[in-house]
Amino acid sequence: MLNASKDLASVLQVLEVSESTYQRWRKQYGGMKSVEAKRLKQLEDENKRLKKLVADLSLDNKMLKYISEGNW
């Protein structure tokens, strides 16, 4: 829409996005193409999943050590 010579305020109004959100997205995703932004989102989701998995496994490991020491 911006390429169709519409001003930023009207484009944001049509998209129902605040200017602060637009500025945050622009800062975060800067010169990325949509494919790169999608890939970044996928990697962030995978990283979150893996961190949760590591936390769960660490908790299981601590629990097993505690039980094997006979402290229960």
From TrEMBL:
<dbReference type="InterPro" id="IPR002514">
    <property type="entry name" value="Transposase_8"/>
</dbReference>
<dbReference type="InterPro" id="IPR009057">
    <property type="entry name" value="Homeodomain-like_sf"/>
</dbReference>
<dbReference type="GO" id="GO:0004803">
    <property type="term" value="F:transposase activity"/>
</dbReference>
<dbReference type="Pfam" id="PF01527">
    <property type="entry name" value="HTH_Tnp_1"/>
</dbReference>
<dbReference type="InterPro" id="IPR052546">
    <property type="entry name" value="Transposase_8_domain"/>
</dbReference>
<protein>
    <submittedName>
        <fullName>Transposase</fullName>
    </submittedName>
</protein>
<dbReference type="GO" id="GO:0003677">
    <property type="term" value="F:DNA binding"/>
</dbReference>
<feature type="coiled-coil region">
    <location>
        <begin position="33"/>
        <end position="60"/>
    </location>
</feature>
<keyword id="KW-0175">Coiled coil</keyword>
<dbReference type="GO" id="GO:0006313">
    <property type="term" value="P:DNA transposition"/>
</dbReference>
